[in-house]
Automatic annotation (TrEMBL):
Residues 24-274 form the EAL domain. This is Diguanylate cyclase (GGDEF)-like protein. It comes from the Bacteria. The chain holds residues 348 to 634 of 634 of the full protein.
Length: 287
């Protein structure tokens, strides 16, 4: 009865797919309504300067508070929002809110905003950014845009001029999740990023595994040699922080400093005592 089993399995997968489709449609309808119902919220995660031993900025991370499903993580709706084009409206909202929030923070504190590939191809990103900055009266130098390699990959010839225009206005551009794409190195030389953010998958074993440490060391040196600021994401322990203090790493981000928190907690985060692994470093310029 292998055949019968096979048919049963096929039916199971067909039902499963049908259910998936329905869930998607429901989610898409909810997502459309969410923009108007203001169900989104931004949480902020500190970017911690290792040399100055202080928070130097925050990354804005979107949260969707669904009335029935509860909190839906970005990975469960951003890809869908990209597919159906809603990420343009959502992205505009994120830019506005992030700039408004950052305008309340001390002068030296930047805000980093994630930008999706769709925002480059189906909207006037430069205009949206300018409008958000103007509405908040925030200096362009306090805004960083984070883009992943896949953004560049989608359409290099379309994206590059936009990145250059943004950079000319004084906005900083970071390459996010560095090392996860398949041709990271060639992209590094096609655009002068201000910063690379080394993906958290590279930090996991750096304390216990020599090879993992060596790879981290090499990526940090590469970014440094190219004159880019280097951030390591996903730092969860004091041991990882101590190790990164010994490297040319400029900045870290991760649960060890703080998880993403609601905007109202930013002043509290800024008031916390510095964290360090006990390694004293000279500022880069003086070495
Ligand atoms: P990302 O830009 O790489 O953001 C970092 C993610 O790592 C965040 O997940 C953050 O909560 C998580 N993280 C931070 N520190 C640690 C740590 O120490 N350990 C671990 N395991 N994780 C840590 P989150 O908030 O779930 O966001 C996931 C992704 O969703 C982001 O990755 C970004 O690609 C996307 N995303 C978030 N907000 C937006 C947005 O406003 N617009 C767009 N287009 N994408 C967004
Ligand atoms: Mg990011
Ligand atoms: Mg990242
Ligand atoms: Mg990442």
């Amino acid at each position: 009865h292998a055949k019968a089993d096979g048919r049963k399995r096929e039916r199971f997968f067909a039902n499963e797919m049908e259910a998936q489709m329905q869930l998607r449609h429901a989610l898409e309808a909810d997502l459309r309504a969410a923009v108007e119902k203001e169900e989104f919220e931004l949480h902020y995660q500190p970017l911690y300067d290792l040399t100055q031993r202080r928070i130097c900025g925050f990354e804005a991370l979107i949260r969707w508070n669904h009335p029935v499903r509860g909190r839906v993580p970005p990975m469960d709706f951003i890809p869908l929002a990209e597919e159906v084009g809603l990420v343009v409206d959502i992205g505009r909202w994120v830019l506005r809110r992030a700039c408004d929030d950052a305008a309340q923070w001390p002068e030296g504190i930047k805000v980093a905003v994630n930008v999706s590939a769709i925002q480059f191809s189906s909207s006037d990103l430069t205009r949206d950014v300018s409008e958000a900055l103007a509405a908040a009266t925030l200096s362009p130098s306090r805004l960083e845009l984070e883009i992943t390699e896949s953004v560049l990959m989608e359409n290099l010839s379309e994206v590059l001029p936009i990145l250059h225009a943004l950079k000319e206005r004084g906005i900083h551009i970071s390459m996010d999740d560095f090392g996860t794409g398949y041709s990271s190195l060639s992209y590094l030389s096609s655009f002068p990023f201000d910063k690379i953010k080394i993906d958290k998958s590279f930090v996991n074993d750096i304390v216990d595994n020599k090879e993992a440490h060596a790879i981290m060391h090499a990526i940090i040196l590469l970014g440094d040699a190219l004159g880019m600021r280097v951030t390591v994401e996903g730092v969860e322990t004091a041991e990882q922080l101590a190790l990164l203090e010994c490297e040319e790493c400029d900045e870290i981000q991760g649960y060890h400093i703080s998880p993403p928190r609601p905007a109202r907690e930013v002043p509290h985060l800024l008031s916390l005592p510095p964290k360090n692994g006990g390694v004293t470093r000279l500022p880069k310029a003086k070495r």
